[in-house]
Amino acid sequence: MPSLLAKNALVLATMDESGTEVANGALYIVDGFIEQVGATADLPSAADAVVDLSGHVVIPGLINTHHHLYQTLTRAMPGAQDAGLFGWLTMLYPIWAQLTPNHIRASTRTGLAELALSGCTTVADHLYLFPNGSRLDDEILAAADIGVRLHASRGSMSRGESDGGLPPDSVVEDPATILEDTARVATTFDDPSPGSMVRVVVAPCSPFSVSEALMAESATLARELGLHMHTHLAETIDEEDYCLDVYGKRPLQMVADLGWEGADVWYAHSIFVNDEEIATMGRTKTGVAHCPSSNMRLGSGIAPVRRYKKAGVPVGLGVDGSASNDGNHMLGEARQAMLLARLDAAPSLSGGALLSARDALRLATRGGAEVLGRADLGSLEPGKAGDFVAVSMDRIEYAGAQHDPVAALLFAAPTQVDHVYVHGRPVVRDRELVTADVEEIVREQNRLAAQLVY
Confidence band (pLDDT; 50, 70, 90) for 193? Predict the structure, then answer.
């Protein structure tokens, strides 16, 4: 069993229940799992591999709970730059209808490489359209090249324009085909064991792109297979109006009536919710992927993170699609979450506490693990998987920020991280991706993006 000793960290922020931070900290990892955490002097002095992290802050690997990796092909698209959600989707659907398996593979590698360089070790991706022979398999196999953990969501759209939905008919699928393929992908790839690199999620896209019947049948299938469930919900007022008009219900009530609540369910965005709905989510432990940059980019609104946390709702962070962000930076997303929550709270605080840097980092680590149902991730503790990130404080970005190095990760401008390990294996070393050729990834991505759009 290979062992790894990561030692001499300036500060090791465990993100455990007590918020333990260890000066001159170290991790001892065996066969991908943490065996010991503590001061360097108290841990073994040797291992198969030893990493000296002097001058670095060490945190758990960051967890991205909502993404659309294929959208890295359509960043900063003219015509979609200044649109709200429905207009943005309407403009981009015809372009996405041209996707091929090569586009899925290339965009997966691009997005995951960029995320890894920002400290992300686990990604929940929502792929919900499969044109021209594309399959979720294309994403899963490409992700293995980068070496981060993937929660691959078998998304779906079944309600096209001709049935009163938003997407064009060309990108929707037959419900029977969707359910059959979801079961196939889960049987082929899902690994529920601790430390697993791939899990499969059941993920109808949204209330305006699937039928009630498919939502209900998807929930039944997910629970038969022991899979988690994910969907977009309560993202915009347009969506709320659509649900009231088509279903006669608010979005959360619509999906709850179809079995979509509980600790095995999480929603993306969930901005437009009332106090009663928040209380229900807290009671049922239904989770939320908070996507601050995307919500600002599309002008959607501000999710009530403080009220969610007060009610006991599991909350993680999501970068969201790379055509609505338009980047892939998890450390930057944690910073945005911290700042946006402060803006939302400021008028009513009257001197009360703001969301702290450590609060935001907990959303990006421990919170994300709870949302995804990963008891093996999210903190640096014995028994957890050996996923960690190290950032050197001896850099211009952190000059003068030694007073509180952990908080400096978010208060200072977001940067690429120095080292990323997943299951005790290096993915980023000295700010360089070691699992794949970034220059080759960029060339292929740009070639395919140009082919797709022009």
Answer: very high
Q: How many CB atoms lie within 10 A of CB 307?
A: 16
CATH number at residue 15: 2.30.40.10
pLDDT of res. 350: 45
Q: The pTM is what?
A: 0.97
Specify if 452 maps to a domain.
Answer: no
**Residue 440 maps to a domain:** no
SS3 assignment, position 210 = coil
Domain that holds residue 412: 3-60+383-433
* Domain annotation covers residue 442: no
Q: How many CB atoms lie within 10 A of CB 259?
A: 17
Strand ranges in 83-213 using DSSP code E only, listed in sequence order: 120-127, 149-156, 198-204
Asked whether residue 128 falls in the same domain as residue 52, the answer is no
Tell me the per-residue pLDDT of 350-395, one tens digit each, with 9 for 90 and over: 445 789 999 999 999 999 999 999 999 999 999 999 999 999 999 9
Interatomic CA distance for residues 317 and 390, integer angstroms: 20
